[in-house]
Design brief:
Blueprint (H helix, E strand, L loop, with lengths): L9 E2 L5 E2 L31 H4 L1 H18 L3 H21 L11 H21 L9 H11 L1
Antiparallel strand pairs: 1-2
Helix pairs in contact: 2-3, 3-4
Amino acid sequence: MSAEAAGLPAEVPDGTARSVPREPGGRPEATRGIARPEGGGRAAGSDAPAPARQWPIIVVIAGTIIGLIVTAAGAFRAGTVLIGASLLLGAVLRWALTAVGMLAIRSRFTDVITYGILGAAIVLLGLMAQPDPLIRIPFLEDIIHFSVR
């Protein structure tokens, strides 16, 4: 067991001991030095009300909620396409804007790729839904037929 894990002063490279504040379980009391993701600042100035400062994530969440309501109302294809389009909009907002608030989770590149792939997959699956799919991809149908046998 290390000295820090035991709650004892830790040795630093110059040989002096420093005290690390710890909780009873041995974990540090506070985490320091974690930077916000690139673009993670407020989307509007601090004089704007709280919802306006986070408008990009609110737009994406609102579109997703509307898509879920449309899906629950019985229009599966329209609802899933709306959910996927909301995620694609999130990818576009993350790519185009410098400050997107809580829409920024990781690096800009990772966020755009993640939102884009998930949004495109949901739209594609919504358009391929049975009965009467709007898009037919033969090799995916073969995979499904092979796995269902």
